[in-house]
Design a protein that fits this description.
By secondary structure, the protein is mainly β. The chain contains five helices and 34 strands. Strands 9, 10, 12, 14, 15, 16 and 18 form a seven-stranded mixed β-sheet that branches. β14 and β15 form a beta hairpin.
């Protein structure tokens, strides 16, 4: 509604009119600029599931296994009210959602108090300056082995160009290895200091093979987007579709150069978006997922069902690549950023020239396995993480002494005997760091950092040396939040530490994470300004030594 202004005959009246117009414009601009809100009410329960044909106790969200997708658009505010109807504490974490200036909402025990049985907690997340494909999962007590995970889709805002036409459909495909034992049995094995056995099968959207197989309907001649996430516990997986090629378009929030693949390695914790065109004769085709680099190969299949299909899927399952590491590492190196495409903002992804920024610090992280007091443990730089009695972020905020010590994990391999500690590494806000992941074991590692994306600038076999920087990709390396490290190999990443908070850096090999192969990166700003970090949420749960403290008034 227009407002009428009456001024005097002098210049002062004109100035007053201009000031009033400016104030009115700012008031309406602020209202119009507020980002949209999306509300979710989730009821978390146990329920019977039969993914491998035997009854198991699964974690359901609103009665669903896997849980419902989160659909959102860049900068949306997500208000997710989680009711914990399990008989034990529960937390959800958001793999790849960066929680800008807000690690309180990250949903891991180092940042957030668990939701008690019979209680609820409302997460307030903003997918600030993000696009892409991610997933959520339960972070406590080996709950991830029981379900409770689901997909996260963050679409570009309508005015931001996307480097491919709108697909005819957009499917979430959650793949992962799976055990036929309940998660509490697996947790008990780990608690006794033993390694887990090899998994029993692979799930595709919570389903096994046979009559229980997942199915995805397509129309002949149309193109579809598949968002593939490995939500499993330890194994790298290969994804392929009988008779069809896949064009990679996005990796964990980065639009990629559109390379075509016949199969795609998806390491644990990773997410990819591919385009698939239904350009074959009208029938059904197998979608196949199999383990990589394992002595025993597990397979599962789903169906790509043409809506006008004339026959079921036939023939042998399409074979995956052999266990040649070079094939996989060359595929990984081929995944590069599309420098001319827009990301969450209209400016091209290549406008940030990460390769021209001076490194302020090099951190080397080496994973090891060993025994502590006769029990199996896993470590980073010889320190195996031991959870504290209070979330580290709360202890930091309330300045509670004795919960953790910054510097309790070195930033270089020490070669010392493995020890237990609540490991926290300090880092400066706005530093630009290089992290080198060293893997001298005979397994494929997969590392994830909450709160950030990083540029995967190099990976190779052998031991990293300063001269290894000569082979870095300093132009169009892919930016993502989870990267693999091949056996007896290294992977190097660059990170701009522009997000203050307490951030979990962990292996996605979930048994190893549970037994200590993780730590927290405390990115610190001495200013204490809300420009750098939001204050503690008003509804924050308080536990451990934070009980009795106060947050902010509601």
């Amino acid at each position: 509604m227009a407002e009428k202004f009456v001024g005097g005959g002098g210049g002062g009246g004109v100035i007053m009119l201009l000031l009033l117009l400016c104030a009115t414009f700012l008031r309406f601009s602020m209202v119009g600029a507020e980002d949209p809100y999306r509300f979710f009410d989730w009821n978390v329960t146990y329920g019977d599931i039969y993914p491998l044909g035997v009854r198991q106790q699964g974690i359901l969200i609103n009665g669903q296994f896997p849980g419902p997708d989160i659909y959102s658009v860049t900068n949306d505010n997500l208000i997710i009210n989680v009711y914990n109807n399990l008989p034990e504490p529960f937390l959800l974490s958001w793999n790849g959602v960066q929680q800008r200036r807000n690690s309180f909402q990250d949903g891991v025990y180092g940042t957030t108090c668990p939701i008690p049985p019979g209680k609820n907690f409302t997460y307030t997340l903003q997918v600030k300056d993000q696009i892409g494909s991610f997933f959520y999962f339960p972070s406590l007590a080996f709950h991830k082995a029981a379900g409770g995970f689901g997909g996260i889709k963050i679409l570009s805002r309508p005015r931001i160009p996307v480097p491919f036409p709108d697909p005819a459909g957009d499917y979430t495909i959650l793949v992962g290895d799976w055990y036929s034992h309940n998660h509490d049995i697996l947790k008990s094995i780990l608690d006794k200091g033993r390694r887990l056995p090899f998994p029993d099968g692979i799930l595709i959207n919570g389903r096994g093979t046979g009559n229980n197989a997942a199915s995805f309907i397509v129309e002949q001649g149309k193109t579809y987007r598949l968002r593939i996430s490995n939500v499993g516990l330890q194994n790298s997986l290969n994804f392929r579709i009988q008779g069809h090629k896949m064009t990679l378009v996005e990796v964990e929030g980065t639009h990629t150069i559109q390379t075509t693949y016949s199969s795609l390695d998806v390491h644990v914790g990773q997410s990819y978006s591919v385009l698939v065109t239904a350009d074959q004769p009208a029938k059904d085709y197998y979608i196949v997922v199999s383990t990589r680099f394992t002595e025993k190969v597990l397979n599962n299949s789903a169906i790509l069902h043409y809506s006008n299909s004339a026959s079921p899927a036939r023939g042998p399952l399409p074979a995956g690549p052999d266990n040649d590491i070079d094939y996989s590492i060359n595929q990984a190196r081929s995944i590069r950023t599309n420098l001319t495409a827009s990301g969450p903002r209209p400016n091209p992804q290549g406008s940030y020239h990460y390769g021209l920024i001076n490194i302020t610090r090099t951190i080397k992280l080496r994973n090891t396995a060993g025994l502590v007091d006769g029990k199996q443990r896993y470590a980073v730089n010889s320190v195996s993480f031991r959870p504290a009695d209070t979330p580290l972020k709360l202890a930091d905020y309330f300045k509670i002494d004795g919960v953790f010590r910054v510097g309790s994990i070195p930033d270089q391999p020490s070669g010392k005997k493995m020890s237990l500690d609540t490991s926290v590494m300090g880092a400066d806000f706005r530093a630009f760091v290089e992290i080198v992941f060293e893997n001298r074991e005979n397994i494929i590692q997969s590392w994830h950092l909450d709160g950030y994306s990083f540029w995967v600038v190099g990976m190779d076999g052998g031991v990293w040396k300063p001269a290894s920087r000569n082979q870095y990709n300093l132009r169009d390396a892919v930016s993502r939040c989870t990267t693999q490290v091949y056996p007896k190999s290294w992977t190097a990443v660059y990170i701009a530490l522009d997000n203050v908070g307490m951030w979990n850096l962990r292996t996605e090999f979930w048994g190893r994470q549970y037994l200590g192969q993780q730590f927290y990166l405390r990115v610190y700003s001495p200013v204490g300004s809300i420009r750098d970090e939001y204050p503690i949420p008003r509804n924050a749960l308080l536990c451990g030594r934070a009980v009795g403290r106060t947050t902010r008034r509601l």
